Amino acid sequence: VKNMLLSALEYDPSDAGDVYEALGVIYNVIKDYDAAIDAFRKALESRPDDHQLWNKLGATLANGSQSEEALPTYHRSLKLKPKYARAWLNMAISHSNLQNHDEAARCYLQTLSLNPAATHCWTYLRMSLSSNERWDLLPLVFERNLSGFQEHFDFVLY
User: Fold this and answer.
1) What value, to the nearest 5°, has the Cα angle with vertex 9 and ends 5 and 12?
2) What is the pLDDT of residues 16-64, one digit of tens each?
3) How far apart, in whole angstroms, are the C-alpha atoms of residue 137 and residue 144?
4) How far apart are CA 56 and CA 100, in angstroms?
5) What does residue 133 show for φ and ψ, rounded to 5 degrees?
6) What is the DSSP secondary-structure string of 31-64?
7) What is the pTM of this model?
8) Rounded Cα–Cα distance for residues 107 and 121 (Å)
9) Is the pLDDT assigned to residue 7 strictly greater than 70?
10) Non-local CB neighbours of 77 within 8 Å, separated by 6+ positions
């Protein structure tokens, strides 16, 4: 598939955004993060307002151990679509990787507010709170009391 996509670029490079995005996904799957980052950046040249593409670039940066560099891409994605739960989740994971546990918790809470079905986020939230020794807030996790967190973290409850 990768070779077919590369051939498609040689055949008609004029509108290559979709091809570069597909290449980015393929490189990401085979863990060639540098090539995936390059492909997503090239795709963004033709589609700079694509919130999903910015999120994919961020996730790839984070997968390649570049969580700090991933954060601005998530911010860009969320500027384009503020209620994009996947970008909030990925940003939370990057903050966790960087040991920014309060900010990770805030992003997990925002994810849960936007997507209550993302119940796995309660486990991630518990880990962030535990890492920051916020034992007082753990009962709210076990109760799944999203509104109870509003006095402790800045997030929008939907």
Assistant:
1) 130
2) 878 899 899 999 999 999 999 999 999 999 999 999 999 999 999 999 9
3) 11
4) 21
5) 55, 40
6) T-HHHHHHHHHHHHHH-TT-HHHHHHHHHHHHHT
7) 0.90
8) 10
9) no
10) 51, 52, 54, 55, 58, 84, 87
